[in-house]
Amino acid sequence: MAAAAADLCRRSPSLLGRRHLLIRLLSTQTQIHAPPTPTTPADLSRLKASIRDAGTKPDALAGLFLSGLPHPAFLADRPLFALSVRRLANAGRRDLVASILSSSLTALPSPHPSEGFLLRLISLYSAAGMPDHSLTAFGLVKPPSERALSALLSAYHDNRLYDRVVKAFNTLPAELSIKPGLVSHNVLLKTLVASGDVAAARKVFDEMPDKAGIQPDIISCNEILKGYLNNGDDAAFDQLLKEITGPKRQLKPNVGTYNLRMSLLCAKGRSFEAEELLDAMGAKGVPPNRASFNTVIKGLCNEGEVGAAMALFKKMPEVPRQNGTGVSPNFETYIMLLEALVNKSLFDPALEVCKECLCNKWAPPFQAVKSLVQGLLKSRKAKQAKEVLMSMRKVVKGDAKEEWLKVETQFQLVLADKKA
């Protein structure tokens, strides 16, 4: 793969030739029926809304996408590109991903494809699980750049092609006269840690200043800390943590550093200490994020401190942030709390969490909801139990709906007896 990329990069086609070469290499020739191109801003808005509609079928989505391409405002809509690629990939239609992304090149004004657009393609193909297409896009970046190298390495890492990351890092820079920078080194560190070779990661980390002329930054340090955390090497973790703020490195811990520290404390059964660290972050000018809260909430739940976890959950909307206030829970937050509360037979707060989760159109695990409904019925709260059942019926989608209806039938007679 590295040799193929180097061969591509050594060619020097014109900008127009590069565009047609990329289209030929990436397109799968899938036939797509595209509706008429929208002619007004209102038409374009409706087209975008149709693409965002979860009910739009893959072929129809691809057709709508092609119809929007002549509009510069559509081409610039990165979130819509990402959403379209994700939905087509999730539907198993990578042929349509290849078609819409290759077609987007013909809609670009000269002198495209620019480096920036090709970097977008590398990332989008990676998100669709198409790293070979990412490699092709990388090969068309002229001249080869460190930004493109780091994007390709990230594509391989995100698709768990760890051997390819190491091979590309070791071969492409010399073949293409690219000097790997800090970002590429950090992707390599991340890859080595993910593959379990923390010793190799630490060797690269230590050699960066002398061998590459690059000082590791806080992200580099966090990757090594993550490796020590995964390996349970507390002594090495603590030693590097001291180095980060010491005279040797003089780095400022970021939210990732604090999250790793809290993960270590929670793993040791010291979640209340992690919660204190959570409170201290703001004073240090490092606002906690969702991962910070989820780490501590999970730790508290694992230690049976569900009341403390619920109290922390309620603090999330009040946390000061640089651009406002509040941290939003995600599906993981709700599920951790719901399961822990139900296991402790704390059905009133569990009902509160379940309702909030359902309001976000997230269906909790069936077993947790079943246990909650059983607890509500035993507590003579049949009305609330029925509301949960009906809300689940609205939120559960696809193949899971039939399975949920089987669960629901177990409660129909009981609910009727309770005259809910």
UniProtKB/TrEMBL annotation:
InterPro entries: PPR-containing_protein, PPR_rpt, TPR-like_helical_dom_sf. PPR repeats lie at residues 254-288, 289-319. It holds the Pfam family PPR. Keywords: Repeat, Transit peptide. Signal peptide: none annotated. Belongs to the PPR family. P subfamily. This is Pentatricopeptide repeat-containing protein. It comes from Urochloa decumbens.
